[in-house]
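We now fix the convention by which a protein and its fold are recorded. These numbers are not coordinates but entries in a learned vocabulary of local backbone shapes. A record is reproduced here so that you can trace the correspondence yourselves:
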Amino acid sequence: MSSIRLFILGTLDERGGMHGHQLRLLAEEEHVHKWTDVTVGALYGAIKRLAADGLIAETRVEREGSYPERQVFDITAAGRTALAELRLAGLTDIVVRPDPFDLAMTRLDPDRLHELAGVVERRIATLEELLAASEADLVRIHSFLTVGERVVMTHKSYRLRADIAWHRDLLTELPLIIADESARTKAS
């Protein structure tokens, strides 16, 4: 499922023809980089790929004042079909990406086991900072969001809280992990 395709196709379907700069401004206005995996800088490349795939088509060229000409794109019939599929996938697919931390925890450096508690404590502190920033952002932009956007933006906070809780549980298990790793290293 491509979030950036969903954003562009959904926006063009809802609002009509737009040029890349308008899509970029909308993405910035809606702070999509804060609550999705859409990066504002990737929009122009995605627009080119969608056009190459026939999901959007240039309908006209606009020029405002001394600004350069801008291509205005509309969603095509094939784009509406793809949009329906993306919407369904977005609602039904569950995405849980592996965290490289998990692999690192299974491949510990036996000479640095004494540093592990500090590493986990720093991760907890960082996650707590991310949570505080996410919640502050939500408060700051609350009045600009639809009800659905406000609810969706709390999803990140819930995930961060769960990750913090897991890391705290990990801290309590570290003595056992370290003892096990030390015993395995000595046995090798």
